[in-house]
Design a protein that fits this description.
Layout: E1 2-8, E2 10-13, E3 18-26, E4 34-39, E5 46-51, E6 57-59, E7 67-72, E8 77-82, E9 91-98, E10 110-112, E11 116-121
Parallel strand pairs: 2-11
Antiparallel strand pairs: 1-3, 3-8, 4-5, 4-9, 5-6, 7-8, 9-10, 9-11
Length: 122
């Protein structure tokens, strides 16, 4: 199994910046892409940004130009730097790791962290 441990988050004022980190451990061979999702109160979980082991990244339109995802493959750690935050960014942010591109026995399709709260005050 894979364990994802998130750190960072908290309370930040509108216009400010904050960073998140997520470290993976366990069956690291199971991990391909990593990324961040978020879920605001009363809303469905949505993708924020993802990054492959080759550092190809994807960003949701709502955060393009404001958030930056990065990854340290040696440490199996993914980061999210969030800038120009606004109250609409308030959510629980979840770290995600996708399972292997090619099936490997014992690996799951997705792994999730426990979530970390980010609150942006106006």
């Amino acid at each position: 199994q894979v364990q994802l441990v998130e750190s960072g988050g908290g309370l930040v004022q509108a216009g400010g910046s904050i960073g998140l980190a997520c470290a993976a451990s366990g069956d690291l061979i199971c991990i391909s892409a990593m990324g961040w999702y978020r879920q605001a109160p009363g809303k469905e979980r949505e993708v924020v940004a993802t990054i492959t082991s080759g550092n190809s990244s994807y960003y949701a339109d709502s955060i393009k130009g404001r958030f930056t995802i990065s990854r340290d493959n040696a440490k199996y750690t993914v980061y999210l730097r969030m800038s120009s935050l606004n109250p609409e960014d308030t959510a629980v942010y979840y770290c995600n790791a996708h399972g292997p591109v090619t099936w490997i026995q014992g690996c799951s399709d997705d792994y999730w962290g426990q979530g970390t709260q980010v609150t942006v005050s106006s």
